[in-house]
Amino acid sequence: MAKELFLCAVLALCIVALQAELKTPRIQVYSRYPPNAGEENTIHCYVDQFYPPNIDITLLRNGEPIENTARSDLSFDTSWAFNVLVYAKIIYNKNDEITCRVKHSSLSQPKIVKWDPAY
């Protein structure tokens, strides 16, 4: 009897998982402080509203990965949409292009969002 109940529970979980729909991530790139050339700042790439939770997020400076990035724990809301924050300290240079690249199963190709220092 216990085996049958266990199999029913597993089957129910599988059905729920199969019915889950892909949710495309929303991406926001911003700095902790207003940018000043030559000064340290923290760049944030906040990604939310995505499902499933498997996601690859990379902060880039002039197309190259920024070293020593950190990542928050993966969190979710009541609709099972996930969110995460990736961030790194940088020395701001007005000639640098800072972007956040996101790879997710809901996207046909990686999505790249550019940081706008004026924003």
From TrEMBL:
Keywords: Immunity, Immunoglobulin domain, MHC I, Secreted, Signal. GO terms for molecular function: protein homodimerization activity; structural molecule activity. The keyword Secreted applies. Belongs to the beta-2-microglobulin family. One of its GO terms (cellular component) is extracellular region. This is Beta-2-microglobulin. It holds the Pfam family C1-set. GO terms for biological process: amyloid fibril formation; antigen processing and presentation of endogenous peptide antigen via MHC class I; antigen processing and presentation of exogenous protein antigen via MHC class Ib, TAP-dependent; cellular response to iron(III) ion; cellular response to nicotine; intracellular iron ion homeostasis; learning or memory; multicellular organismal-level iron ion homeostasis.
